[in-house]
Design brief:
alpha+beta; Cytochrome Bc1 Complex, Chain A, domain 1; 5-stranded mixed beta sheet; 14 strands
Length: 442
């Protein structure tokens, strides 16, 4: 078989070389040599995440399946993979999101042996029924722990209000009830399908040699079961929100308020990057430190440094979230709404766009100056089919007219509020909701 060829590319901002290839069995590989750095980071990711709720044969997957499998992947017949990493001075980790599952290590030596361990661990599922029963108990405890986290629960209540049918409403870790339906046969079927090499992406950044990374991948990753080609079936999600407002009483000292704006999810690729960049400039201009709305609310004494805004677009969903701990819920909601309406009317100026663009470029440059964030960025781009130059090019194309149009589009989207109240400030008769589903990585 002909050896796969490395294709050289270049990241335009940090100006670092990135080498691309596909292993003999179809795994996508990206390598960023970073001479002068002591550390190396490798991330192996599958397209399989919590919003993937069916196997190709039609079997429905219980909520929490992707997360459950993530926990099981490091259990091996000869011990825990984390113990192997620890013995070499490396650090291992893993996480599950709505759209993917990733396995990570960082080390300052023995990167080839650690890469062999990572690839071998994810390529083979070596568990029995006792492992499944033990992990079920562990994950049940994890679910209970997150149910007691006010910040986590508040954000998830917001997702439950924003989305009507999309599986993003389901907890990434599942529920105590749903994980009871996850058994050994199901996990084997999921692994054979979604962990086949052609559904995996490997990114390595640090003090490495691209040809050695490719050689290790070819030696350690075997075809096994071919699996089904990854294809995420779009969920049928109405445009509107499930509820305009949800409230819950939690053991917190001050109320916390979340405003969610339910966006139309963009297609993967350049459309996604364009949307992320323009929305990021909107949030930077209005809500970041020194932003127009942030400054006004701070000067009015309505918010403190807990004020935060973010945009998420992944797995067929997209939404912007503005949140803060506040003393007066009604005053915050009223003034945030008014300032947002005023910003929509006035629009964004060229000076504000240029300031936000420079901050975005500076932040991106800092992010790319380390093996761990560089590897994460490479994996994210590969999973979403985004080129290395897409974000920088989109920043260059941004203008006051385009950013203003994005602001007005976003502000017109359906919205929902989640309000977490302290017991002493709870409103009588407020709508109460149970433990919500999850959104962010676990």
């Amino acid at each position: 078989m002909t050896r796969p060829r490395l294709i050289r590319d270049r990241e335009p901002l940090a100006r670092r070389d990135v080498f691309r290839a596909r292993s003999r069995h179809g795994m996508e590989i990206l390598v960023a040599p970073m001479p002068g750095f002591a550390r190396t980071c490798a991330i192996l990711a599958s397209h399989f995440g919590s919003v993937d709720t069916r196997l190709p044969d039609g079997r429905t997957l219980p909520a929490g399946t992707a997360h459950f499998l993530e926990h099981e992947m490091f259990q091996k017949a000869d011990g825990d993979v984390f113990t192997v990493y620890d013995a070499r001075g490396a650090a291992g980790n893993a996480y599950t999101t709505w759209s993917n599952t990733a396995y990570v290590f960082t080390c300052s030596s023995d990167w080839e042996r650690n890469l062999e361990t990572l690839l071998g661990a994810v390529s083979r599922l070596e568990i029995d029924q006792d492992d499944v029963l033990r992990e079920r108990r562990i994950i049940g405890q994890e679910i209970a722990m997150y149910d007691d986290d006010p910040s986590w629960r508040g954000y998830l209540h917001l997702l439950q209000a924003l989305y009507v049918d999309h599986p993003v409403r389901q907890d990434i870790a599942g529920t105590a009830s749903s994980i009871e339906g996850i058994d050994l046969d199901l996990l084997r079927g999921v692994h054979a399908t979604w962990y086949a090499p052609r559904n995996l992406v490997l990114a390595v950044a640090g003090r490495v040699l691209p040809d050695r990374v490719l050689a290790v991948a070819d030696a350690c990753v075997h075809p096994g079961v071919r699996g089904a080609r990854y294809r995420r079936v779009p969920a049928r999600e109405p445009r509107g929100v499930r509820r305009r407002e949800v409230r819950a009483v939690l053991p917190i000292s001050r109320p916390t308020v979340w405003l969610g704006l339910k966006d139309v999810p963009p297609r993967p690729g350049r459309a996604l990057v364009e949307r992320q960049v323009l929305t990021g400039l909107v949030l930077e201009t209005l809500f970041d430190d020194g932003g127009r709305i942030q400054s006004a609310l701070y000067d009015e004494g309505v918010i403190d440094d807990s004020f935060h805004a973010t945009y998420e677009a992944e797995g067929g969903v997209a939404h912007a979230v503005v949140s803060a701990e506040v003393d007066d819920v009604d005053a915050f909601r009223r003034r945030l709404t008014r300032h947002l309406r005023d910003a929509v009317t006035a629009g964004i100026t060229e000076a504000e766009v240029e300031r936000a663009r420079r901050r975005a470029l500076g932040g991106r440059l800092r992010m790319l100056n380390g093996p761990e964030p560089f590897a994460r960025w490479l994996v994210a781009g590969a999973l979403e089919r985004v080129g290395l130059d897409a974000a920088v090019a989109a920043l260059g194309r941004a203008s006051a007219r385009r950013v203003t149009r994005r602001l007005r589009e976003l502000a017109a989207r359906p919205r929902a509020w989640a309000i977490m109240e302290a017991p002493a400030t709870a409103l009588t008769g407020a709508h109460q909701v149970g433990p919500p589903p999850t959104g962010s990585p676990r």
